[in-house]
Amino acid sequence: MWLRIIYNITPITEIKGVGPKVAEKLTKLGMTSAQGLLFHLPYRYEDRTRIVPIGSLRVGDHAVIQGVIELTEIKFARKRMLICRVRDGSALLVLRFFHFTQSQKSNLARGKTVRCFGEVRRSGSHLEMTHPEYSILSATQAKADLTEAVEETLTPVYPVTEGLHQISLRNMVNNAFDLLNAGTLILDDYLPTVLLNKYNFSNLKEALRFVHYPPPDVSLSDLQDNQHPMKQRLIFEELLTHILSLRQLRARVKEKPACIIKSSQQKTNTFKATLPFELTNAQRKVIADIEGDLLKPSPMQRLVQGDVGSGKTVVAAIAALQVIESGYQVAIMAPTEILAEQHYTNFVNWFEPLGIKVAWLSGKLKVAPRREAMALIESAEASIAIGTHALFQDEVAFKNLALVIIDEQHRFGVHQRLALRNKGVSDKHGKQRAPHQLIMTATPIPRTLSMTAYADLDCSVIDELPPGRTPVETVVLPDTRRVEIVERIIKACEQGRQVYWVCTLIEESEVLQCQAAEDTYNELSEAFPDLKIGLVHGRMKSEQKEQVMSAFKNTELQLLIATTVIEVGVDVPNASLMVIENAERLGLSQLHQLRGRVGRGEQASACVLMYRAPLSQNARTRLDTMRQTNDGFKIAQKDLEIRGPGEVLGTRQTGLQLLKIADLQRDAALIPKASAAAEELERKHPENIAPLIQRWLGDASRYADV
Ligand code: ADP
Ligand code: MG
Fold first, then answer.
1. Which of 57, 173, 188, 630 could connect to 471 by a Cys-Cys bridge, CB 3.0–4.6 Å?
2. Is pLDDT at 702 greater than 50 in this prediction?
3. Separation of CA 571 and ligand 2 centre (Å)
4. What is the mean pLDDT of residues 401-428?
5. Do 296 and 445 share a domain, yes or no?
6. Region 431-446: what's the mean pLDDT?
7. Residues 177 and 320 in one domain
8. What number is the average pLDDT over the span 244-264?
9. Could you tell me if 537 and 594 lie in one domain?
10. Which of 384-388, 408-412, 506-510 has the highest mean pLDDT?
11. Is 205 within a domain?
12. What whole-number percentage of the chain has pLDDT above 70?
């Protein structure tokens, strides 16, 4: 209630015709106040500003015509209907009504002048309108100048909902504008004039009025495609608000105290010395960013983007060592069992020689080992815990968790990031501390997009691959050439190369996918008994999977038949060839992830994308893109173009569902401006932030938990 008073919000029931029932319907459409009606924007327009001669109508037009009724009669074709013939100076038009009353019939009397609005269709040799909106003109009206009494502006068409008619909604919006003009409804402009002038934007009222009631000479395509400056003005405000809300969230997280991590670097240095390679400059730079964050008394919120194979795991390990050396615990979470297991194996090899105990926790653990792992974590005997999201269940209690690392997670939303913050932390002195967070993703997203989707995070990019990598050569072949492809694989195996064969299916069914992998496994094993072939899929037991994977890693297996469980993170540098069956069914980022399993060693690698014809347009674009580039950033850009940010990043995760008119892809050019404006507003007009958020996000309470 007090919010309403502070922000001058008028109850929606103040609008003429809005009682409690209608108010409920309006709420469904996102309108909770009278001001809200002004922000319910038309999605298209009708031109009722001029009367069109019947002779120049075209099929599909929505138009106003005016003419004299020649004849009105009831006809029985398949149904009973009312037919009314109208003629103007140019031609004849038929009006057709399937539902009508007797008084309607007598009203549409011969000789009267009628004005109609409707969609033009063809019926046999003539044009007609079915159920047009119409009015009978009085004799004086009929004689008056034709241009009189037609609408002065284009007519808005609004999104409606069941039981709420277009015409009633239009009247309500009209009424809201009447109240606005009368000064009864207050609508503050929270964007300072300086800012508006800078981008040549109109003030809010002007922009809203224009978008609801555009003049007849406007470029309709500009307006409907959201390119018109008046529409851009509103989109800008929405984007700005979206960014402000995320930045506010970030500021609140930063207010929490965190442990200051000042590492002795002893173990870190030992670890670096044992690595069989030098860190790349990009890795060093990102590690420096992280060390800088850890030295601060507020929680790190850092996103590390790095292409497949750029060496994120080592960066995670070094970050973890800093924290462990300072006497705190680290948790590393991976999205899949296989990937978590691989990290576990890596970290055990790296850390146990340094005297650091590693705990393992996944959802599939039996009761006893699970209890054991939880005890290790609770006592802090294990300084580092690795696992799947099972790590963050309520029962898991860390003694002094100071760093959470989330690997390969591009669909990790604001909500989840927040939930982690509450993973009870107290420092050595028992004081509550929020853990630092490091998020790693191989799905790079363009800067404009991360400015909004990840405005609550700092970003670092590993923009360089370790030296000596040769790009994977990619070929695209139809499955009619399967026999030939199999021969090529066998030959490669005989030459000592290791090969992945990935089976996919259109159904998102794990069972069927595993079945397909088993079938291929049986078929190839029978045909080539001398070949050492392994099989790995999601329905196998962990130990089984691990056994097969390590056999492949140790070159005991030549060919590994797998499902997409190996999609993310699996690292076997000696594997240099990959076949992906039904590649046309996979998305770009998935293909890129899969292909990233090869090309990790010194030797030249290849990837065969096998498809079943016919290819859809999008599938063809995807496969072409894969053939043309190995660059994860370019692939991500293409993926965004094809699927849009909601699909790529997750609509809910990014809060995209809360955007009413902006589109992060389409309006990308506005984002840097909105981002700069957000900072300016924070500096100069912080008092405007809350009402803006209230206006655009309302009670959506995106971050209720903050
Ligand atoms: P991703 O970024 O995809 O998670 P990984 O961390 O799995 O990549 O690293 C891929 C491979 O590159 C691993 O075999 C890793 O040991 C190796 N690697 C990482 N950093 C370097 C480096 N600086 N020089 C050479 N090889 C490296
Ligand atoms: Mg990785």
1. 630
2. no
3. 8
4. 68
5. yes
6. 82
7. no
8. 86
9. yes
10. 384-388
11. yes
12. 91
pLDDT 10s digits, 598-628: 988 778 899 999 999 899 999 999 999 999 9
Cβ 26 vs Cβ 18: under 8 Å: yes
d(CA 637, CA 631): 10
Q: Whose CA is nearest to atom 1 of ligand 1?
A: 309
Ligand 2 center to 376 CA (angstroms): 26
In a domain, 420, yes or no: yes
- 544 and 509 inside one domain: yes
Q: Which ligand is nearest to the CA of 314?
A: 1
Q: Measured between alpha carbons, how far is 448 from 235 in angstroms, rounded to an integer?
A: 15
* Residue 638 within a domain: no
Domain count of the fold of the chain: 4
Clarify whether residues 107 and 183 are in a common domain.
no
- What confidence tier does 701 reach under pLDDT thresholds 50, 70, 90? very low
Contact predicate 172/15, CB 8 Å = yes
CA of 282 to the centre of ligand 2 (A): 15
Domain that includes residue 352, residue range = 256-462
Tell me the per-residue pLDDT of 117-142, one tens digit each, with 9 for 90 and over.
999 999 888 899 999 989 998 888 87
Q: Of the bound ligands, which one is closest to the alpha carbon of residue 311?
A: 1
7, part of any domain? yes
| 171 CB-near residues (< 8 Å, 6+ apart) | 16, 17
Q: In this structure, which residue's CA is closest to atom 20 in ligand 1?
A: 311
The enclosing domain of 128 has a CATH number of 2.40.50.140
Chain position carrying tokens 């008994």 = 529
Are 101 and 121 in a shared domain? Answer: yes
Q: Which ligand is nearest to the CA of 596?
A: 1
User: Domain of 264: which CATH number?
Assistant: 3.40.50.300
| Ligand 1: centre distance to CA 97 (Å) | 71
Structure tokens at 574: 């000696």
The pLDDT tens digits for 1-60 are: 455 666 778 999 999 989 999 999 998 888 889 999 999 999 999 889 989 999 999 999
Closest protein CA for atom 10 of ligand 1: 309
Pocket around ligand 1 at a 6 A CB cut-off: 277, 279-280, 283, 306, 308-314, 442, 466, 569, 571, 573, 600
**Which of 462, 483, 517 is the last residue before a domain boundary?**
462
Return the best residue to mutate from 286, 307, 310, 339 for the ligand 1 pocket (most ligand atoms within 8 A of CB). 310
What residues are neighbours of ligand 2 (ion), with CB under 5 Å?
312, 569
Mean pLDDT in residue range 626-642: 88
CB atoms within 10 A of CB 509: 11
Q: Which are the contacts of 147, defined by CB distance < 8 A and separation ≥ 6?
A: 50, 51
Q: Are residues 126 and 178 in the same domain?
A: no
Instruction: Looking at the structure, tell me whether residues 331 and 480 fall in a common domain.
Output: no
Q: Which bound ligand lies closest to the C-alpha atom of 462?
A: 1
Q: Could you tell me which residues come within 8 angstroms of residue 184 by beta carbon, excluding any fewer than 6 positions away?
A: 10, 14
